[in-house]
């Protein structure tokens, strides 16, 4: 199934330059898709150009199927590049993933695949920018794809998080202000046309902002001091559970039982939008695979059904969904919770690999809009990580390189 990731924005002009990603969502039997490098990347992977990384996933059919990978390059707006393959990739792709192993001592069988990049066949990715990694089966059918981004560290980007200057949103929104310096040995020519900026909250592409022009130049840097145009809803800290031990209850696990595989039941949750903000450390929607039963979590972790329940006196006009980085922030049939009159709550279950997970509940309205704060609320005090990516196309060039990345955390928010 082809899945287009639409990028929302407060203003049409701010999101027009970044509209959709030609991404294909995985079938139900493909699970736990991860990029790993110096860290495990949650959300869209942001990897420094030249740094090695791995791509991993599980096939729950567990029959050691043959999978092949293809790497494609895209412009800033995710239109196909004009570059030939050998201009952005040294070596070959369209090759079989040779590194795989079967699960060991688990109730749910699966085959774990790992692709290391670069490798002896795909020697290097030459340029920074937007990439799409596609996985094909033995019959050359596209199974799924996953975007990732390579950046250069060529220019400093200063990022600050501010409270909104609009009193209406003072307590609910976080505003990203930033400045982009001229890289050493490179003059940013005609930045209104050649320089594009992408803003990310917690590395979530589905809420990205783009289309901003520098407001003024001071010395060697371009300054962006917007208010509502670069504002994000603050949201709330994510809820979490820890399933590393399926044979005993752990953090936020009420009980467990064994059928064909383990079933874990989360303590019932309740809406938090009308409650005061309470700091609760999270990993900004991410997750980490882990198990206490075995030394290699990649093949010794169980798959478990985790059951969720959202209680409360509310009647939302739309669908209630689970939300988090565990499935790239997609709302789909598998994340849907349904109302149960017997318990007066919305209930559902999702298949997770053992580990520590962040999640929250969101509302998909009847007109197709995603309201992340409907159940959780929006607070200016919420801890969020913000990233600024600067894409630049040199005059006469045919691709958009990422010349720098800047980050800031809303823990340092100021007026």
Brief overview:
With 415 residues, the chain is mostly beta strands.
Description:
The structure is a single chain. The protein is mainly β and 415 residues long. The protein folds into three domains: 2-151, Sandwich (Immunoglobulin-like), CATH 2.60.40; 157-234 and 381-412, Sandwich (Immunoglobulin-like), CATH 2.60.40; 239-376, no CATH class. It contains five helices and 33 strands. It has helices spanning 12-15, 85-88, 191-194, 297-300, 373-376; strands at residues 2-6, 20-24, 30-36, 40-41, 46-48, 53-59, 68-74, 89-91, 95-96, 100-102, 111-117, 122-125, 129-136, 142-151, 157-163, 173-181, 195-201, 204-210, 216-218, 221-224, 231-233, 239-242, 253-258, 262-266, 287-289, 303-311, 318-323, 336-340, 345-353, 355-365, 370-371, 385-392, 401-409. Strands 22, 23, 24, 25, 26, 27, 28, 29, 30 and 31 form a ten-stranded mixed sheet that branches. The N and C termini lie far apart (45 Å). Residues 1-18 have low confidence and may be disordered.
Keywords:
415 residues, mainly beta, Immunoglobulin-like, ten-stranded mixed β-sheet, five-stranded antiparallel β-sheet, 33 strands, disordered N terminus
Structural class: mainly beta
Helix content: under 10%
pLDDT under 50 segments (min length 5)?
A: 1-18
User: Into how many domains do the coordinates divide?
Assistant: 3
Estimate what percentage of residues fall within beta strands: over 45%
CATH fold node name of the largest domain: Immunoglobulin-like
Average residue pLDDT: 92
The first-to-last residue Cα distance is: 45 Å
Q: What's the total count of β strands?
A: 33
- CATH level-two architecture of the largest domain: Sandwich
Q: In CATH's first tier, which class of the largest domain applies? A: Mainly Beta
Number of helices: 5
Provide the gyration radius in Å.
22 Å
Main beta-sheet annotation: 10 strands, mixed
Gross morphology: globular
